[in-house]
Write a structure and sequence with these properties.
The structure holds 2 protein chains of 2 kinds. Chain A is α/β, with parallel strands linked by helices. Chain A has 9 helices and 10 strands. The chains are: A alpha/beta, B mainly alpha.
Chain lengths: 297, 337
């Protein structure tokens, strides 16, 4: 990497108000705790370790992003947190209780659109509530509030195929939040959206997060997205997937689009992107991000 | 993709007008060919219809005689100085002209049966429809749940599908004799043939359709807290219902193809009986009319089901469609069945 034209501050230096914020967060209870998590896949060529000794904790109302190249075990981690796959060893604790199998206490938003195409927006959001035993009337009124919150009030009776990609993801967020999950786990939720929509969705997500008491674990391969959204950035390395660094994001909140160009933002972005030695395979979206030099820009 | 005015655009849609012209032609061309053969005397017409038998002893008015024989007889008459027969070129009796068949489409329904215990045409058709209905309904009552079960649970699939896979290669009509022995000669064995012809395919097709259901939806529902039972009734079934519906439409079409064989088993009945009898009486225009009726009923049923499906599953709809618009969609090749 060429020498930076711009003198970037150290990403570890926290402004006093940011440091105070992290102090406050560290006093909050731990929502999600992962201890010595390992995942080994049995393949034809023998066992392959996807995740190695991963440990971290996420505190209440914290916004944590997970970033890393392909093969770093992001998806594996997500599937184990969701309860869709089982870990080989280690523990996943939610509110101190071990997680087993999928459940409504962890709200999921996937990259692929997973709205039920046969249900209207309203019915999609009502799905988890009805399954959770709420009466139809209660489920409906709660669902409508969530739909209002994500700004789709006028689309309550539309079917998913009438919505744009960004709208679908808003509904998916509403559907996950309606269950009042302890943590919202988002697996590259905006990865399939165009750049403009993605920006809108990011600020929209921050708005929701500020209004709702929810902890968010957000997987992405977009450095800018990670820097813009999160309190802390978990950087994973690949082969096998392991924790490389937990960056405390020094960019003060509330954040604006202009901050994406501030030196402190760029220093985090550079750090988050730079700690990774170039992996053997990069995700298609990640290559473009990695190619432009954050220091030189 | 925008329609192209190029008639030979590769996999490109044509403009509305051209598309409709082609649709009309796809029916009009065979009809024109038929008209040509029927109404233009110098095309084919291998027979002569006798208008005046002359003094040929065995000729009668309206009789159809091969051209060669007609010419030979007339030569004999001429040489003997007798009066020659007169006639006009005609087609064999098994190829009636379009207008005759068109007439027959009406008169066949109005003509009382020749024998007192014979059914009218509409009764024959209704009987055939009831055979199809019961065969298909019985097959679906078992096949639909079984197919969904096989598509949902590997255990059910491994237990039943290998045998069904084997059984579906056995041609349904081969069971005719057995069905008659077990169920008598009336409707039961015919329904059984339709059942055998439909059921095994149905289970496999529906199981496959259910298996194609997007697993991501299942996982999403799981993370929302759905139990196994809720996954089946709230995700798997609604998620594949539209494809199952379309499968059922195609399967119903297959059931019709077994109809004629089924009706020949035991005591011939229904439209098959009508066709056979009319063939025996050499009323071939009625035979054509009856065959066309099968096609019309099949197509009309499928169209009605397509239209119904469009109304049953609003999330698949691109907009409200009339029956006529459904029909137009239907005859376009890009129509997704």
């Amino acid at each position: 990497m060429s020498a930076s034209v711009l003198e970037l501050p150290d990403y570890r230096e926290l402004a006093p108000e940011v440091a105070a914020r992290f102090d406050k967060i560290s006093e909050r209870p731990v929502i999600l705790e992962v201890r010595n998590l390992n995942k080994v896949f049995e393949s034809a060529e023998g066992p392959r370790q996807a995740l190695k000794e991963l440990s971290f904790e996420v505190r209440r109302r914290e916004f944590v992003t997970v970033i890393g190249p392909s093969g770093c075990g992001k998806s594996t981690l997500i599937r184990m947190l969701a309860g869709l796959d089982e870990q080989s060893s280690g523990q996943i604790l939610l509110d101190g209780r071990e997680v087993s199998g999928p459940g409504p206490d962890r709200g999921m938003v996937f990259q692929g659109y997973t709205l039920f195409p046969w249900l209207t927006v309203k019915k999609n959001v009502m799905f988890g509530l009805e399954i959770g035993g709420h009466s139809e009337a209660v489920a409906e009124s709660e669902a409508l509030q969530w739909i209002e919150m994500v700004g789709l009030g006028s689309f309550a009776n539309a079917y998913p195929n009438q919505l744009s990609g960004g709208m679908k993801q808003r509904v998916a967020i509403a559907r996950a939040l309606a269950n009042k999950p302890r943590i919202l786990i988002m697996d590259e939720p905006f990865g399939a959206l165009d750049a403009q929509t993605r920006c809108q969705m990011q600020s929209h997500l921050i708005q929701i997060w500020r209004q709702v008491d929810v902890t968010i674990l957000f997987i992405t391969h977009d450095l800018e997205e990670a820097c813009y959204l999160s309190d802390r950035i978990m950087v994973l390395g690949s082969n096998p997937g392991h924790l490389m660094e937990f960056i405390r994001n020094p960019v003060p909140r509330p954040r604006s689009d202009e901050q994406c160009l501030s030196p402190v933002f760029l220093s985090v972005k550079k750090k988050a992107g730079g700690v990774d030695p170039p992996g053997p395979i990069l995700e298609p979206g990640a290559t473009a991000e990695d190619s432009h030099d954050p220091g030189g820009g | 993709m925008k329609p192209t005015r190029d008639w030979l655009g590769l996999r490109r849609e044509l403009p509305e007008g051209r598309r409709n012209v082609l649709v009309v032609f796809s029916f009009a061309l065979p009809l024109m060919l038929w008209c040509l053969v029927s109404y233009v005397p110098w095309i084919w017409h291998p027979m002569v219809r006798i208008a005046d038998p002359g003094e040929v002893s065995y000729f009668q008015k309206e009789m159809l005689i091969e051209k060669k024989v007609f010419a030979a007889e007339n030569r004999t008459m001429r040489e003997a100085g007798l009066r020659q027969a007169q006639g006009s070129p005609a087609n064999p009796i098994f190829l009636p002209a379009p207008h005759k068949v068109a007439q027959a489409l009406i008169t066949a329904f109005q003509t009382p049966p020749r024998l007192p215990n014979e059914p009218w045409l509409h009764e024959s058709l209704l009987h055939s429809i009831s055979i199809i209905f019961w065969g298909f309904a019985l097959s679906s009552i078992i096949g639909l749940p079984l197919g969904i079960l096989c598509g949902t649970f590997r255990a059910a699939s491994r237990l039943t599908e290998p045998f069904i896979e084997f059984f579906r290669y056995l041609p349904a009509p081969a069971f005719g004799a057995l069905c008659v022995a077990m169920m008598g000669i009336h409707d039961a064995p015919k329904i059984a043939i339709i059942f055998i012809g439909t059921f095994f395919q149905q289970v496999l097709v529906i199981a496959n359709t259910v298996r194609k259901n997007d697993p991501a939806l299942l996982e999403a529902a799981q993370t929302l807290g759905a139990s196994r039972r809720q996954l089946i009734f709230r995700v798997i079934i609604p998620g594949s219902i539209t494809d199952i519906y379309n499968d059922m439409r195609i399967l119903l079409g297959w059931a019709w193809t077994y109809l004629i064989v089924a009706e020949l088993i035991g005591a011939t009945s229904g439209i098959t009986y009508f066709i056979n009898q009319q063939g025996r009486y050499r009323n071939y225009e009625n035979v054509y009319a009856a065959i066309m009726m099968i096609g019309v009923i099949g197509l009309a049923t499928d169209l009605a089901l397509a239209w119904l499906g469009n109304n049953l599953f609003p999330w698949k709809r691109q907009g409200q469609k009339s029956l006529w618009e459904t029909a137009l969609d239907y005859i376009r090749p890009d129509y997704v069945k």
